[in-house]
């Protein structure tokens, strides 16, 4: 877990963009997540909360592109 | 979800599976329900026992067909011709439910003069920008609808679409319009529909779906005669409709049909979207998707619309209907995410949310990964090495990552690609040179953890843990909570602006037991929402506030946990057919949504036989067999004021589709879809048939992602003369990670096979039980031959078209292995939800096994003829 946390932190530090053209971006596109339709609502909620609202990840996807 | 979302307001099945037993006819299309949803199929059988007619339309004869009264084989990918012809049949024969259509749909709404239909522009709607390859939908607006002033050019420059615009009407005020209740105005939606579908004739069905006129007319007569005040008919579909380059528009055609027949919001009616995983519905409601936040709130997109919270709220809120409270839903979510950090002064943390800058969906970022632009990837409970389109590209892209985290119950093909994939066997990848650092975490199974699934009928069902997970296996909740703790701790030491949101993120989840597992119900309480600062659970979404005094993780789920110790998703005492008392259906435990439409405008049921919800004049409230999906105390004769009013009150007492700004079902979608306000037939991206209706062959807004490692066969390519369609079996689950690892299921379905007709077998020399190789522009796979009359050659415009069926469950791990069928597919994106086309493409099939030596493999992309 410590190793994964360190990888996430390093990649995010390297790739995070606070702004573009003077507008807020607060985003990293170097980190991605896949999966959710086999998981619980609570798990999906926490993944989106931590990854998107906390870390600025936008590359999130799952099986439910319907 | 946008097919249902834009038509009715919510991206979810409109009914419950049990309610199918009330139907007078059931059309199952794009699904083999008996095989893939066998538990729910009992209600189809129950309906049949009571006299309902069951119609199954599918290229293959399956166990669903065996139970149906009518089986209709059709050419894969011709669904909109078939359904469009049903719509035409209704309109030409005056079979619409006129009172329902006039009062509860936008049939009377008049369109702008500058709107042009596909019938006028040979396959395009007005507004197509050929250079940018998207629609400017301004001309799709209603006559009289002003565009919203959000600091942008008049109207909007690009058609919005996707999960985030399920609400529809985001870019305009669809509460303002001109209308003609007589439905005679030449530009009213009803007349536009008639003209649009005029060429979708039974004859066209015969020529291009391969369904004889007689059979088509029998289906049309059966389905429409089972609709009206005294009767209702239902439609069930699954990914056989979704996974097309025009999947959303197929579902839209079904929605138009059901609205015209008055089958939405009524018992035995509806459209049942049969979902393919335990929580497909749940994982879009509370999404792990790039374009939406929980409850279908759109992610902020980079640009003017997200410069300020006000601009964002103005763009996505609406003046009338339930979305008028958009600010309450959004600010309450920000309070759930950021707690005390979300304050009015910082626009409730709006600027901590990342901005969307492009296609960050699965395929969008995967192609970036293939090009070396990504560093790290989490994969949880999904197996893209087998389950995703163009598997070769998917697997090779993994080797470009710096690190990969896979969490699953077994070592899936995705976790083992670096030593076990076909690319390693072929010498295209080698463990020595792959730099990806791979972390494989054992995950707890569903019985080994507590949690909530939202099933196919919007029903939240909470599971208690049955047993502890073995060894080091843990739940995703455990993983995310403990990862979050570490990252937040790290952020505390670094006060960079980029960490402000992470520091503010509320993350005080408590844990229990020797493994420090989080208490899952705490998360569900947060999703339900509570008041601030006293943390009283909210009862109803009407309790939400826009002043920071409520927190709510997903407004549509509000009410699932209405008291600190009452988890309605865990309730197990059903008291009626619809299952009230068992679990909690969103919204507000409504089992059949839009059920105000089950009563006439005056509040009385359309018929005694089909009563569901009605106005109780004595009690002055809506009542009935389901929770009313309406303001409980608004009398039916309350006048509407959608042109000038505000809020849900402006809809008055007789507009059942309360999420739409005009309160009615949308036959025509003026705003919210990227590929047009009406469905039009386009051929699949790969098809042996030229589009009979338009010069335009394919959905122009679909994204083929065509590149050297993702090539297509063009129309008329003689190398790939047959139609290929993929599907699932009862015994295996999707990419097989959960089933090919079990001995009994492996024994029941041990080997990849291909279903072909006796005619095709004779034509190309295939022998039952022997091997065949199936080839597409991407790859080839080998499979055992199953010669069966269940597959029929189809006559298309005087030519025979053969269809080849392939289930896709096998891979290179597990008790039973086999070639990865999804290697045959192209990565492609339907424009609204960015799903790939799996149900109709072109292939060849030849006898014998595929070559093993490298020089017998399909030539590398670079050497392949264009």
Q: Report the end-to-end length of chain A measured between terminal Cα atoms.
A: 33 Å
Low-confidence stretches of chain A are none
What is the average per-residue confidence, as pLDDT of chain A, rounded to a whole number? 96
Largest sheet of chain B: 6 strands, mixed
What is the strand arrangement across the widest sheet of chain B?
Answer: 23-25-24-29-22-28
The number of distinct helices of chain B, counting runs of at least 4 residues, comes to 24
- The percent of residues in helical segments of chain B reads 10-25%
Q: What ranges of chain B have pLDDT less than 50 throughout 5 or more consecutive residues?
A: 151-157, 859-866
**Structural class category of chain B:** alpha/beta
Distance between the termini of chain B: 36 Å
Number of strands of chain A: 3
Average pLDDT of chain B: 95
Q: Could you state the order of secondary-structure elements of chain A as H and E?
A: HEEHE
What's the count of strands of chain B?
Answer: 29
Strand order of the largest sheet of chain A: 1-2-3
Tally the helices of chain A: what do you get?
A: 2
Determine Rg of chain A (CA atoms, Å): 13 Å
Q: What level of helicity do the residues of chain A show?
A: 40-55%
Oligomer: heterodimer
Largest sheet of chain A: 3 strands, mixed
What does this entry look like structurally?
The complex is a heterodimer of chains A (66) and B (866). Chain A is α+β, with helices and mostly antiparallel strands. Chain A has helices spanning 2-15, 41-54; strands spanning 17-20, 23-34, 57-61. In chain A, strands 1-2-3 form a three-stranded mixed sheet. Chain A starts with a helix and ends in a 5-residue tail after the last strand. Chain B is globular, with a radius of gyration of 26 Å. The interface between A and B is large, with 59 and 99 residues.
């Amino acid at each position: 877990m410590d190793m994964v946390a360190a990888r996430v932190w390093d990649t995010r530090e390297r790739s995070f963009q606070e702004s573009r053209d003077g507008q807020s971006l607060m985003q990293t596109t170097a980190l991605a997540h896949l999966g959710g339709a086999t998981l619980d609502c609570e798990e999906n909620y926490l993944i989106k909360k931590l990854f998107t609202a906390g870390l600025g990840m936008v590359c999130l996807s799952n099986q439910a592109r319907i | 979800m946008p097919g249902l979302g834009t038509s009715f307001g919510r991206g979810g099945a409109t009914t419950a599976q049990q309610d199918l037993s009330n139907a007078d006819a059931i059309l199952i299309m794009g699904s083999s329900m008996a095989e893939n949803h066998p538990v729910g199929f009992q209600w189809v059988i129950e309906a049949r026992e009571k006299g309902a007619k069951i119609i199954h339309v599918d290229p293959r004869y399956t166990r669903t067909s065996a139970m149906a009264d009518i089986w209709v084989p059709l050419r894969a990918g011709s669904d909109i011709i078939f359904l469009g012809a049903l719509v035409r049949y209704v309109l030409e024969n005056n079979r619409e439910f006129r009172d329902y259509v006039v009062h509860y749909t936008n049939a009377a709404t008049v369109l702008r003069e500058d709107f042009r239909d596909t019938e006028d522009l040979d396959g395009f709607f007005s507004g197509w920008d050929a250079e940018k390859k998207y629609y400017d939908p301004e001309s799709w607006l209603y006559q009289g609808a002003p565009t919203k002033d959000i600091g942008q050019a008049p109207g909007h420059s690009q058609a919005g679409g996707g999960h985030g615009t399920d609400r529809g009407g985001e870019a305009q005020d669809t509460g303002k319009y001109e209308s003609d209740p007589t439905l005679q105005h030449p530009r009213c939606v009803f007349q536009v529909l008639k003209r649009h579908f005029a060429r979708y004739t039974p004859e066209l069905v015969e020529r291009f779906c391969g369904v004889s006129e007689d059979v088509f007319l029998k289906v049309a007569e059966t389905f429409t005669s089972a609709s009206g005040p005294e009767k209702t008919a239902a439609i069930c579909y699954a990914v056989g409709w979704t996974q097309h380059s025009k999947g959303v528009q197929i579902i839209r055609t079904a929605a138009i049909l059901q609205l015209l027949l008055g089958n939405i919001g009524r018992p035995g009616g509806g459209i049942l979207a049969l979902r393919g995983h335990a929580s497909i519905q749940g994982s879009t409601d509370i999404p792990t998707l790039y374009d939406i936040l929980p409850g279908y709130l759109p992610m902020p997109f980079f640009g003017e619309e997200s410069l300020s919270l006000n601009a964002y709220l103005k763009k996505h809120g609406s003046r009338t209907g339930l979305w008028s409270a958009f600010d309450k839903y959004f600010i309450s979510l920000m309070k759930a995410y950021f707690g005390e950090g979300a304050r009015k002064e910082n626009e409730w943390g709006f600027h901590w949310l990342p901005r969307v800058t492009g296609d960050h969906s699965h395929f969008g970022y995967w192609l970036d990964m293939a090009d070396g632009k990504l560093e790290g990837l989490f994969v949880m409970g999904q197996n893209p090495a087998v389950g995703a389109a163009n598997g070769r590209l998917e697997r090779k892209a993994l080797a470009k990552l710096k690190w990969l985290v896979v969490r699953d119950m077994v070592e899936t093909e995705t976790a083992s690609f670096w030593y076990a994939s076909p690319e390693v066997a072929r010498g295209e990848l080698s463990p020595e040179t792959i730099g990806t650092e791979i972390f494989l975490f054992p995950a707890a199974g569903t019985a080994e953890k507590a949690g909530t699934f939202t099933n196919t009928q919007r029903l939240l069902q909470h599971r208690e843990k049955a047993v502890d997970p073995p060894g080091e296996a843990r739940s995703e909740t455990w993983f995310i909570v403990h990862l979050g703790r570490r990252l937040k701790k790290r952020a505390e030491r670094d006060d960079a602006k980029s960490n402000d949101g992470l520091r503010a993120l509320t993350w005080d989840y408590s844990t229990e037991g020797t493994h420090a597992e989080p208490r899952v119900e705490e998360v569900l309480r947060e999703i339900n929402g509570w008041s601030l600062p006293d943390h009283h659970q909210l009862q109803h979404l009407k309790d939400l506030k826009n002043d920071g005094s409520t927190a709510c993780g997903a407004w549509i789920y509000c009410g699932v946990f209405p008291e600190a110790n009452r988890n309605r998703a865990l309730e197990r005492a059903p008291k009626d057919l619809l299952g009230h008392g068992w679990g909690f259906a969103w919204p507000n435990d409504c089992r059949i949504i839009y059920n105000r439409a089950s009563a006439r405008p005056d509040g009385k049921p359309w018929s005694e036989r089909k009563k569901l919800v009605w106005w109780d004049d004595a009690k002055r409230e809506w009542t009935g067999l389901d929770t009313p999906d309406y303001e409980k105390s608004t009398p039916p004769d309350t006048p509407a004021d959608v042109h000038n009013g505000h809020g849900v009150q402006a809809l008055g007492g007789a507009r059942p589709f309360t999420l739409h700004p005009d309160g009615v079902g949308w036959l025509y979608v003026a705003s919210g879809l990227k590929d047009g306000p009406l469905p039009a037939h386009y051929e699949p991206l790969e098809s042996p048939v030229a589009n009979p209706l338009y010069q335009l062959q394919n959905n122009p807004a679909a994204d083929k992602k065509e590149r050297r490692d993702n090539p297509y066969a063009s129309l008329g390519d003689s190398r790939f003369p047959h139609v290929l369609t993929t599907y699932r079996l009862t015994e295996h689950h999707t990419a097989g990670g959960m089933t090919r690892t079990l001995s009994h299921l492996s024994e029941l379905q041990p080997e990849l096979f291909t279903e072909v007709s006796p005619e095709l077998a004779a034509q190309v020399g295939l022998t039952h039980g022997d091997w065949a190789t199936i080839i597409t522009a991407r790859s080839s796979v080998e499979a055992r031959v199953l010669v069966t009359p269940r597959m029929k050659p189809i006559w298309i415009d005087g030519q025979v078209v053969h269809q080849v069926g392939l289930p896709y469950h096998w891979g290179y791990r597990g008790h039973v292995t086999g070639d990865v069928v999804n290697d045959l597919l192209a990565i492609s994106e339907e424009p609204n939800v960015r799903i790939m086309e799996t149900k109709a493409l072109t292939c060849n099939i030849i006898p014998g096994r595929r070559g093993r030596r490298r020089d017998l493999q399909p030539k590398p992309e670079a050497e392949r003829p264009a």
